[in-house]
Design brief:
The complex is a heterotrimer. Chain A contains 11 helices and 11 strands. By secondary structure, chain A is α/β, with parallel strands linked by helices. Chain A has 2 domains: about 160 residues, Bordetella uptake gene, domain 1 (D-Maltodextrin-Binding Protein, domain 2), CATH 3.40.190.150; about 120 residues, D-Maltodextrin-Binding Protein, domain 2, CATH 3.40.190. In chain A, strand 6, helix 6 and strand 7 form a beta-alpha-beta unit. Chain B is flat and about 60 Å long. Chain C has one domain. Chain C contains 22 helices and 2 strands. In chain C, helix 3 packs antiparallel against helix 4, helix 11 packs across helix 12 and helix 11 runs parallel beside helix 13. The chains are: A alpha/beta, B mainly alpha, C mainly alpha. Chains in contact: A-B, A-C, B-C. Chains B and C meet through helix 1, strand 2, helix 2, helix 3 and helix 4 of B and helix 8, helix 10, helix 18, helix 19 and helix 20 of C.
Chain lengths: ~325, ~150, ~500
């Protein structure tokens, strides 16, 4: 009996040692990334951010010579996932989709956000901007942005505009627009871009600010009219539609930006590796084609430092409009 | 039994009052422009009324309630252990990893709740841990943390 | 008829061998995903999204639709076997399905659930074909005031849901409404009852609540005493429903399908709600309503058909308006967009092969699912033969994994555990879980609709009555609430006379 136990014990030890050696071997044989890198998406599956990353993750993976695993951690408008990623080890194996909403807006509009976009984040790069649209139904009386402003000036609070949630980019765009055009259009918040569009179509609201992808099919079917784009430049598929900036609403021309970042303390060699891989990916014509098909996603590659500067500048601007929002303590 | 029902209603009464207080702090707004606290306050108010009604009905009932007693004693320990095991699992999952956690969890439960021999418990634990790992991390690729073993 | 021509075309597309294979893979994955609690079709869809790049568009949508469909079939399996809802929509199936399993009728429950889903799917597909565009336009008329009134109507139906004490059930409703408020208020952006916890900021997840309330609490109750008595009556008295059960199920299946379809086309409607409505309707129509909750097959047939019908109906606004109504439809749309297909009013014209191919493959998928699921019933029933002293640990493990997977956040496990304890106490003290779940689903939707309506009307209440659809719902709700007060008075009197 003792012999049996002895044998079992030694076999067990041998077994464990083999596995350990195996593991250690694997870890020494490759460069970074040696194991799958987790990219946290702070939004739910199906959202534009999610679809964007899923569409290009394979290509990024090829360029960085590693496996990318996308993990959704939705909640709090992006705060939950962002916070989770920022609290993980800065070993380069947990990165996250650095969206402008949770990084530059939430710290201003949502109380108790547990991170600071300046000190707690290592920015790697900015990838794209999601263009937003300012639309009406095709049977609406408004054929241009100016007409909307004119009507709104004489009828304060009469116009209703569907947006995606209080404190989200579309809502802030509306508030900034209200301030700059000196009008009072009432925002009606919905849970998603899709819901915002549905309510516009059903006649429950008069205007709608939402991402292009949510409204594109209606636009092509001529059920809605896009009066303007909110994006850095005119979109090549729709060269005849003006942008907010052109019409004098440059300050209101913020959009959701997407980048890649990690927790503070990320080594610069890892940052550079990713920067190069991302740059290469976004120059790949296959990737460009996929992104174009998504609609309304404008490639705007910038370095991590530039992105950080942009986010912090925007944050200062947001602080100015806080007093105009309802129920803000 | 009657006492228990009274305690339950008192519990809900307290819960509802607490809810109303917290909702009030959240700003009720006006009826035409409700604030964040409006809805939960209303629900809390209704709950206060309901629990008072429940208290009233129970206290004024004259007859005795059917005592549903059973011959066996309730094994409180089982429940406490399960609660502890699940909590332990949750808190250590990120650090220890899915495989080991599952193994420990199953082995513990098998051994303690309805006592099996050590051999059966450990074998059960190992088989379940490996099978579960295969199904979830390999087949479904759902990424439950690997913890210290790294796989 | 023109439609028959289209259908013919559709079938020719769908019956191509490659598409048949994709359909099969889709429904298979869907079933597996559905069986797993906490993992919904959206998880599978998001994992497979990159794969769809290399797959032609028609096949993509067939694959993805198959997954969504299969998930609805699979979700009821764990509900019936171990009282853990595989999907939130399968909650209602737990009520009577699990009780049937305990009586040895698990096979019948699984069988009627599969068959009911099949008929529901078939009926709804036909409705989809003929009614999609006009219905979609009708559904657009549902604005915030209509949603609010509909939710009020939904809550008023709850009165019929309660099995025991009405006061207890109503307290559960209030409890559900309050819990539903936890989290970031979507309308004002103010965190409510969050107390600086990041996990709570997004509210209490329905999945975690339901797994805890049903799955875990059931285990806790069973563990109280020793396992000498049988938890499950494993003398299987026949794997499929017998003649009598068939007869009783025809009505519920038909009614459930219609309820599921017409409620499902409303954009944003949760799939959970039609199942509750169907359950309550069957209970009201039954000759022995008090037996509901002890294993009545109508309580399985109706809701299961409703949930399948609703998940088909969800495709109506998605395909004809191009507007996603939830995570899975959003992923579906995303996959199509990547292929350059624009769902929406132009879909039928521009890509008829996609639209009609999809319709045809939905039907084929239905057939495949029933062929797949019926033989599996024998396998599932064998699972119940596993001795409970091992089975219960597996059930708990499944609960843990199911609640973790949604957000990869271990605090969700704690939430599930908390509700498991709450559910256990509720069972001991005679409180029901169903009203709680219904309120948890309806509450947030109702509140948001209320707030938005007031924003639209700048504070006036007339908006609820000025709009015809909304007014209709409110009047119906009032009628439903008034009549049971008389019934309720009688029940209250009975409660006062007898014991609880």
């Amino acid at each position: 009996m003792r012999k049996k136990i002895c044998m079992k014990k030694s076999f067990g030890i041998f077994f464990i040692m083999t596995i350990l050696i195996f593991c250690i071997n694997i870890s020494f044989s490759q460069d970074y990334p040696k194991s799958p890198v987790q990219i946290v998406i702070p939004f739910g599956p199906g959202g534009l951010t999610d679809i964007f990353w899923r569409s290009i993750s394979e290509y990024i993976g090829q360029n960085i010579k590693g496996t990318i695993v996308l993990v959704n951690k939705p909640g709090g408008g992006g705060v939950v996932g962002t916070s989770f990623a920022l609290n993980s080890k800065p070993d380069g194996y947990t990165l996250f989709s650095a969206n402008s909403d949770p990084l530059s807006m939430s710290p201003v509009f949502t109380p108790n956000v547990p991170y600071h976009p300046d000190k707690d984040v290592t920015y790697i790069a900015k990838l794209t901007t999601f263009a937003f649209t300012f639309s009406v139904r095709s049977d609406s009386q408004f054929k241009s942005l100016e007409e909307v402003v004119e009507f709104a000036k004489t009828n304060p609070k009469k116009l209703k505009c569907s947006v995606m949630g209080i404190g989200s980019t579309p809502h802030i765009i509306l508030e900034l627009f209200n301030r700059d055009a000196k009008v009072a259009i009432t925002p009606i918040p919905f849970d998603s871009g899709g819901e915002a569009v549905t309510n516009l179509l059903g006649g429950h609201t008069d205007l709608c600010i939402t991402s292009l992808s949510s409204i594109k099919s209606q636009f092509l079917a001529k059920k809605v009219r896009i009066l303007a784009f909110i994006s850095p430049k005119r979109l090549k598929e729709h060269p005849d539609i003006p942008t907010f900036a052109e019409k004098g609403y440059k300050k209101a021309s913020i959009a959701t930006d997407v980048g890649l970042a990690g927790p503070k303390g990320l080594s610069s060699s890892i940052v550079n590796k990713w920067y190069e891989a991302l740059e290469k990916t976004l120059k790949d014509p296959k990737v460009v084609e996929i992104i174009d098909k998504l609609g309304g996603v404008v490639i705007d590659f910038k370095s991590g430092d530039e992105y950080k500067k942009q986010l912090l500048t925007n944050m200062e601007m947001f602080k100015e409009i806080v007093p105009t929002l309802p129920f803000k303590k | 039994m009657k006492r228990i029902i009274i305690y339950c209603n008192i519990f809900w009464l307290l819960f509802a009052i607490l809810t109303c207080i917290e909702s009030y702090r959240l700003k009720l707004g006006e009826i035409n422009h409700p604030g964040p606290g409006f809805f939960p306050f209303g629900a809390g108010l209704v709950m206060i009324i309901l629990s008072l009604m429940g208290l009233f009905i129970t206290i004024t009932k004259k007859e005795e309630f059917r005592e549903v007693s059973s011959e066996e004693k309730i094994r409180w320990w089982n429940i406490i252990i399960i609660i502890g095991a699940i909590s332990g699992y949750a808190f250590s999952l990120d650090r220890v990893g899915f495989l080991i956690n599952t193994f420990l969890f199953i082995t513990l439960l098998l051994k303690v709740i309805e006592p099996q021999s050590w051999k059966k418990s450990i074998i059960g634990g190992v088989i379940t841990a490996i099978a579960a790992n295969f199904v979830f991390n390999v087949v479904f690729r759902v990424q439950i943390p690997s913890g210290i073993l790294g796989f | 008829m023109e439609v028959l021509q289209h259908l013919n075309f559709g079938f020719s597309v769908a019956l191509q061998p490659i598409n048949l294979i994709y359909c099969f893979i889709g429904v298979l994955i869907g079933t597996l995903v559905g069986v797993l609690p906490g993992v919904g079709p959206s998880a599978a869809l998001s994992l497979l999204l990159p794969v769809t790049f290399y797959v032609p568009p028609v096949s993509t949508i067939i694959l993805l639709a198959g997954i969504t469909y299969g998930a609805m079939y699979g979700g009821s399996t764990t509900s019936i076997l171990v009282n853990i809802p595989g999907e939130a929509a399968s909650v209602v199936t737990c009520l009577d399905g699990y009780q049937m399993a305990r009586k040895g009728r698990a096979g019948a429950a699984l069988g009627i659930s599969a068959i009911g889903s099949f008929f529901a799917g078939t009926i709804t597909i036909f409705l989809l074909i003929f009614l999609a565009p006009p219905l979609a336009n009708f559904a657009l008329k549902f604005g915030p005031p209509e949603y609010f009134s509909l939710m009020v109507l939904g809550l008023s139906i709850m009165v019929y849901l309660a099995k025991g004490s009405i006061i207890n059930a109503l307290i559960m409703v209030c409890f559900g409404l309050i819990i539903g408020c936890i989290g970031l208020d979507q309308i004002t952006g103010v965190p409510r009852f969050v107390y600086k916890s990041i996990t709570l900021m997004d509210g209490i997840g329905l999945v975690q609540v339901v797994i805890g309330l049903f799955g875990v609490s059931e285990v806790l109750i069973n563990v109280e005493k020793s396992f000498k008595r049988e938890i499950f009556d494993t003398r299987v008295k026949g794997l499929l429903p017998n003649k009598e059960e068939w007869k009783r199920s025809i009505g519920p299946i038909g009614r459930g399908s219609l309820i599921g379809f017409f409620l499902g086309i409303i954009p944003g409607m949760s799939v959970v709600i039609p199942t509750f409505v169907s359950y309550v309707l069957e209970k009201k129509l039954s000759r022995s309503p008090e037996k509901f909750g002890t294993g009545m097959i109508e309580g399985v047939a109706g809701p299961e058909s409703a949930n399948n019908a609703a998940s088909t109906a969800v495709l109506v606004p998605t395909l004809s308006l191009g507007i996603p109504t939830g995570a899975s439809t959003a992923l579906l749309l995303g996959a199509l967009m990547i292929h350059g297909i624009r769902p929406g009013p132009l879909l039928i014209k521009e890509s008829p092969d996609v639209f009609w191919g999809l319709i045809a493959s939905l039907y084929i998928g239905n057939i495949m699912l029933i062929v797949l699921n019926l033989p599996l019933i024998g396998l599932w029933v064998k699972i119940l033969k596993v001795p409970y002293h091992y089975l219960f640990s597996l059930i708990l493990l499944l609960c843990i994994i199911g609640s973790y997977i949604t957000n990869n956040n271990f605090y969700d496990i704690i939430i599930m555990l908390t509700f498991g304890i709450i559910g256990y106490l509720m069972k001991k003290f005679n409180y029901e879980a169903a009203p709680l779940v219904l309120a948890l689903v309806l509450g947030p939707m109702m509140e948001k609709a209320f707030q938005r309506s007031l924003m639209m009307s700048e504070g006036g209440f007339r908006i609820f009555f000025e709009r015809s659809i909304s007014a209709t719902f409110l009047i119906l709700a009032l009628l439903i609430l008034i009549s049971p007060i008389f019934l309720g008075k009688r029940r209250l009197k009975e409660e006062l006379k007898s014991g609880d």
